[in-house]
Amino acid sequence: MMTYQAFPEGFLWGGATAANQCEGAYDADGRGLANVDVVPIGKDRFPIITGQKKMFDFEEGYFYPAKESIDFYGHYKEDIALFAEMGFKTYRMSIAWTRIFPKGDEAEPNEAGLQFYENVFKECRKYGIEPLVTITHFDCPMYLIEHYGGWRNRKLIDFYEHLCRALFTRFKGLVHYWLTFNEINMILHAPFMGAGLYFEEGENAEEVKYQAAHHELVASALATKIAHEVDPDNKVGCMLAAGQYYPNTCNPDDYWEALQEDRENYFFIDVQARGEYPNYAKKKFAKLGLQLEMTAEDLVLLKEHTVDFISFSYYSSRVASADSSLKETTAGNIFASLKNPYLKSSEWGWQIDPLGLRITLNTLWDRYQKPLFIVENGLGAVDTPDENGYVADDYRIDYLREHIKTMNQAINEDGVELWGYTTWGCIDLVSAGTGEMKKRYGFIYVDRDNEGNGSLKRSKKKSFAWYKKVIASNGTDLD
Ligand code: P53
Q1: Residue 84 C-alpha to ligand 1 middle, in angstroms?
Q2: Helix H segments across 316-461?
Q3: Where's the active site on this chain (predicted)?
Q4: DSSP string over 6-44
Q5: I need a labelling partner for 133 at 20 to 30 A (CA). Which of 20, 226, 311, 348 fits?
């Protein structure tokens, strides 16, 4: 057996999920409808999540996987017991906004919704699992989209503030780690899923997206302020869909292109971590002629309430080129990029690059000097259970092992400060990008298919025992 240097004491090992991808029970106990409920599986999904096709309610002839999902709502005790069996130190999950405020603009929260999350957090605490809570993971109440236009409207800041106050006061002492917006840069790539944005004919989509982004950035700063006021022990993080861009060649034009692409994503974190709009962004807005409304108070809020830590998802690195005639892109990813010939791909065409994680960790650390948290990483793959329902997912173990190795090097050889690691979809759940169940990430198999058939029975995959050992050895035993 090869042993590796240990991770720092208290390192937060765990797994991650999101409400809309696992809870189901979309209309239980007063819950309202959200954007993430009305995105079906199939060919219309992409135009809908990107805000080009309008679907504001369930329609005939479509299947909506989030309605039932894996019914975490009805299985949370069983599922958390399994996480505890693996030795999770933390569990990253998200709040369904519409369980707390079904329409989004009510004066009082829905008690049944608050009670559900209180039960979940208490269940975690029973096993010594620290909840890490994403306040919004792609969800926005449909009512706010239909009546206010989603995050393009400044009023959303108030509704979000209201949500945050309800959560911070009710869960004081039960939750200490909060993330304000999942993958905040997703607003540029999947604006309906990211921020409830739908574009009317002839609209300046860039302007709408950056105005909505400004509202989210201000809301994030406000949430940070309130979280600290309510409980000084609260730690608030931002969340980036990360993955370094590489230049396609050493041609300086390609390097410049890669830098520009990286900035498009880092822009959000630059504001959340440093507290101001970077010059390159101001110049870009001016060049594009974007008219963005920002108040003097907004800028003060941004400056005074930067995040405590930086969290991110990492699945792959990306490639940029100045040569626009190059067309060979990676398939199946909202962040389509050029293909990297040095890397292998997953069954969904996502390129696998463990060293890219070390590079991304170092870049973020060099840029911000704030503690980091990897809150998503993993391999989406087809699992085929044997006659006993067992999945021997060595491919997933290999993927995770190689990423944990470079994470270890980033900490122990490069000195990056990393608080924790939560693998994506620790229990199989619905894919955000495609709506499939077939694209599985979990240590726990869930019997359900793309059409919604299946018993929902949970069973442990081979990776379950493996991850348990990794956590028990604090990362020294990866065999
Ligand atoms: P799925 C694309 C690229 C990077 C992160 O994705 C992404 C996406 C969305 O497809 O989203 C995050 O399920 C997101 C999760 C999502 C996960 O990556 O498409 O935060 O909600 O499930 C994996 O395989």
Answers
A1: 24
A2: 354-368, 394-412
A3: 376 (nucleophile)
A4: PPPTT-EEEEE--HHHH---TTGGGPPPBGGGS--SSTT
A5: 348
Determine how β-strand 245-247 pairs with β-strand 318-320.
Answer: parallel
210/144 Cα distance (integer angstroms): 18
In angstroms, the CA 44 to CA 168 distance is 37
For residues 50 and 52, give the distance between their C-alpha atoms in angstroms, rounded to a whole number.
Answer: 6
What the block records as the tokens of 375 is: 């809150």
Compute φ and ψ for 440, nearest 5 degrees. Answer: -105, 145
Tell me how far apart the alpha carbons of residues 158 and 161 are, in angstroms, rounded to a whole number: 5
Residue 122 CA to its chain's centroid (Å): 23
What is the length of the chain?
A: 479
Supply the residue whose CA is at minimum distance from atom 2 of ligand 1.
334
Known catalytic residue at 376? yes
Spell out the CATH class of 12-472: alpha beta
d(CA 305, CA 222): 7
The whole-number average pLDDT for the span 425-435 is 98
Cα 250 to ligand 1 centroid, rounded to whole Å: 30
Cα dihedral 80/83/88/89 (nearest 10) = 0
Q: Burial level of 479, CB count in 10 A (0-12/13-18/19+)? A: exposed
Atom 10 (ligand 1) nearest CA = 433
Helical pair 394-412 and 354-368, crossing angle rounded to 10 deg: 30
- Using one digit for the tens of pLDDT, what is the confidence trace for 138-167? 999 999 999 999 999 999 999 999 999 999
How far lies 266's CA from each of 47, 212, 232, 239, 403, in Å? Answer: 25, 17, 27, 11, 22
At residue 331 the predicted structure's pLDDT band, cuts being 50, 70 and 90, is: low
Domain boundaries, the chain: 12-472
Which stretch of DSSP H or E encloses residue 143? helix 142-148
Q: Is 424 in the pocket of ligand 1 (CB under 6 A)?
A: yes
Residue nearest to atom 5 of ligand 1 (CA): 241
Distance (Å, rounded) from C-alpha 268 to C-alpha 188? 11
Q: How far are the Cα atoms of 51, 137, 172, 339, 395 from residue 330, in angstroms, in the given order?
A: 22, 25, 43, 5, 20
Gap between the Cα atoms of 364 and 224, Å rounded: 20
Cα pseudo-dihedral 96, 102, 103, 108, rounded to 10: -110
Ligand 1 atom closest to residue 439's alpha carbon, by position in its atom list: 24
Residue 252: its H or E element: helix 252-269
